[in-house]
Structure formats: structure tokens, C-alpha cells
Amino acid sequence: MRKKYIAGNWKMNLNLADAKDLASGLDAEIKNLDGIDNVDIAVCPPFVYLQRIIGTLADSPIKAGAQNVYFEANGAFTGEVSVEMLKDISCPMTLIGHSERRHVMGETDELINKKVHASLAGGIEVILCIGELLEEREGDQTEAVCERQLREGLANVTADQMANITIAYEPVWAIGTGKTATSDQAQEVHAFCRKVLADIYDDSVAQATRIQYGGSVKPANAEELMSNPDVDGVLVGGASLKVSDFTGIIKAGLACG
Ligand code: 13P
What we know:
The chain has 11 helices and 8 strands. It has helices at residues 16-31, 47-56, 83-88, 99-103, 109-121, 134-138, 142-153, 183-200, 203-208, 219-226, 243-256, and strands at 4-9, 39-44, 62-64, 93-96, 125-130, 165-169, 211-214, 233-236. Helix 1 packs parallel to helix 11 (243-256) and helix 5 crosses helix 7 (142-153).
């Protein structure tokens, strides 16, 4: 059985004091929960706070990851952060291809694939985010978009490397809008993505790969979403910024584990 994986994406929010309070508050809340080792938990702070939060969580089961990374090792890439730099601060994981990177910053599947390869080559785990826009869903393109983002994002990634990849399905129309996909809509796309993974790799890779759902996840809907057979956790934006909400979502994950 796949272990549930609950990740918080703090996006461009908080200040240093609030970020440290959030990390230490979460750690204090979850430490004593029964069966806490039965779920994986991560938070992704903004880059400027990442090293401090990795320190705050040094003795915690919660790991701190990056929201983004660049594929080049070093050089004249103003404003970018490399895999080597993440390794230097003991950062174990990164999000790649988040919808805001794709649709606000204009990242392509080709760029995302380069970032995936650079991260895996450097031993950094990846949460690869995919998902369709509202007009794509309305145009019945959801499966085509998710399939393309999976095939191109994972191009030339080996079956062995898939052990270090989690997929996050985040329908763009559900992100920050309060409109969560229904439990059935989420399950349907997750099952489809698993079928695509089986086609790219094989059934055992498809069965082993975790697929998170993201988009307006809250304590009130997290358990229903994660009780679906193909929903292996959640990637949470807004509700990961409050200790009580994110703890409620972690408890929902434990209830489904
Ligand atoms: P919200 O939970 O705020 O909708 O954000 C989801 C998301 O983009 C997580 O990466």
C-alpha cells in the first residue's frame, strides 16, 4: 500500500518569524499523533526562508523542500537556484512544474523535464505537478493535457528513478478558488494518470508511484479526497499556512492510511 504523502506549498507567503512559528507549531502538534510515521509530510517555504526552516525542522518528521529549482549547475542565471545549492543546504526535495510556474512564469514541459532530470541526478526528490486549465476541462481536454504533461515531464526518466518522483494532480481551476474537484473527479483523473504511468513504464511503477491531489484542500474535504484508492495524499496551498488546518489535513491522511 502506498504511504499517504501530505505536502504544504507555502508559495510567496509569510515572513521569517511567521514561517518559523508555523514550522515549529506544526512540529509540536504532529509529533505526538498516533501513527505519525504512517504518513510522509513536507512543507515548501519560499527560498529565502528554506535554510532556516530546514534547521527548525531538523529533528522533525516533517521535511522542508523547495518550490522550484533551475536545471543548470551554476553560472549566469540571475535569480535562479541550482540543485547543487539545494544540496548544500541539505534540502531533500523540490516541487517542479507547479501551475503557477507553468501559467504565470511561462514554464514549458521541456524546461520542466530538464529540471526533473537535474534534480534526480543530484539526488533531490521531486513532486512533479500537472493539471488542466478551466477551459481545457470544459473543452474535454483534461486527460490529453495530463497525459502530455506526464509524458513530457517524465521524458527519459527511468523506471528506477520513478522511486524519487511523486506526481501532484492540481486542476488549475481548483487552485486558490475554493472550488475543489469532487472526490469522483479527482479519483477519475488519478486513475487515468496511473494508467498513463503503466503505459510509460509498467504496472509495478504505476502502482508504486504516489499521486497527490491539490486544489482548495481543507480539513473538511481532505479525508474524502484521500479515501479514494488512487489519491495518495494532498498538496496544499492556503490551508498549509495555518497550524490547525494543516494538522487537520495530516490527521485526515492518518485516518485514510
Ligand atoms: P490551494 O490549496 O490554496 O488551492 O493551492 C493549491 C496549490 O497550488 C498547492 O500547490
